[in-house]
Design a protein that fits this description.
Elements: E1 6-11, H1 19-32, E2 37-42, H2 44-51, H3 55-72, E3 79-83, H4 88-98, H5 103-107, H6 110-118, H7 128-141, E4 147-150, H8 155-172, H9 184-189, E5 196-199, H10 228-236, H11 254-262, H12 266-278, H13 284-307, H14 313-342
Parallel strand pairs: 1-2, 2-3, 4-5
């Protein structure tokens, strides 16, 4: 048994990943895979909450995300890339955890409320849509994860997960109500550690519209497969509200976020920001060109790695199958522990991988 901390995170298949995914979470996953036991979840069942009428697209998008993981530097020998729909313990724990959460608590989740608004769902969504918020707690706790690399918009989901872990441990494992989350007794006596959010370098990358978080659905995203010409064109659309190169710029503008994030030479980044803030004869266009070049240099090795897997679904599926088998060893152990603690354990079961 490994003594390293466990990391669980993942993505719902909605097509290719973009630059916001990388700086917000995936870059951190790459860093952690050398020091932690890492599980990366392809949350294909969650995709069905709003796209159950497009199963072929979800199937294809699932493979595309796996390709993007590999392109961004995920090593499948270090990080298990797994399929949610082939990890049955997650579904069973979702049902159990749903009993521990009041419905109105789930619906107060700000991330869930925002998704209903952004996707224009109104009152027209399946029961599975709010249930996926519970399912995310099972995604994490099935692995007894200690940390979850996420963007800042996902923090409310982590808070809900912490509530479930805390409630389960105190209800079924005899842990006193006064025991704090970071008390060693919480993990030693309980089934679940209380997981923490591990926010990436950039909690929320603004999209190329200069206003909203980067998102494919808002058409303001830079994909990791974009050519230098496409990157330059998209970045050229970044709105700052600045009128001329002699106007003092906002140090907190979206353009300056890109400078901080992608200009790796700290002296050059400081120089650009200083001139921009003082309005020292430097135009937005000049800075955008420099940032676009830095982004393309970042994407080039990703695109080279990704090209090795283009059109090769069988290799991708083999990687996912191996990662899922490793994940099921961990999650079946968790499920057995949870059943025993909650009075649902009657006999041992084993999965065939």
């Amino acid at each position: 048994m490994s003594t390293r901390e466990v990391i669980l995170t993942g993505d719902t298949p909605t097509g290719q990943l973009h630059l916001g995914h990388y700086v917000g979470s995936v870059q951190r996953r790459v860093e952690l895979q050398d020091t932690h036991d890492c599980y990366l979840l392809l949350a294909n069942m969650h995709a069905y909450t709003t796209r159950s009428d497009h199963p072929d697209e979800i199937h294809s998008d699932t493979l595309e995300i796996a390709r993007d993981y590999l392109a961004m530097g995920i090593d499948p020998s270090k990080s298990a890339i797994l399929l949610q729909s082939e990890t049955p313990a997650i579904a069973e724990l979702t049902f159990l955890f749903a009993m521990l959460l009041p419905f109105n608590r789930v619906m107060r989740n700000p991330t869930l409320k925002e998704e209903i608004k952004v996707k224009g769902l109104g009152d027209n969504y399946s029961f599975g849509f709010p249930l996926y918020a519970v399912g995310q707690t099972a995604d994490i706790l099935a692995f007894r994860a200690h940390a979850v690399p996420v963007g800042e918009d996902q923090i409310p989901h982590i808070e809900l997960t912490r509530e479930v872990a805390r409630r389960f441990n105190k209800l079924y494992c005899g842990i006193d109500d006064n025991v704090e989350d970071d008390d060693p007794a919480m993990e030693e006596l309980g089934v679940f550690p209380i997981p923490r959010a591990d926010v990436g370098k950039v909690g929320k990358l603004i999209g190329t519209d200069g206003v909203n978080k980067m998102s494919k659905s808002l058409n303001n995203a830079i994909l990791i497969t974009d050519t230098p010409k496409q990157v330059k064109k998209k970045l050229g659309q970044l709105y700052t509200g600045r009128q001329s190169m002699t106007d003092p710029g906002d140090p907190d503008s979206s353009l300056m976020q890109y400078v901080d994030t992608f200009i790796t030479d700290s002296d050059r980044a400081s120089e650009l920001k200083d001139k921009y803030v003082r309005g020292d004869n430097i135009g937005d266009g000049h800075i955008k060109v420099e940032v676009a070049q830095a982004i393309s240099e970042l994407l080039a090795p990703m695109q080279e790695r990704r090209s090795q897997y283009d059109g090769d679904d069988s290799t991708i599926i083999d990687i996912i199958r191996d990662g899922t088998a490793r994940a099921n060893i961990r999650t079946e152990e968790t499920l057995a522990m949870a059943k025993e603690a909650s009075g649902l354990g009657f006999f041992e079961r084993k999965l065939s991988f």
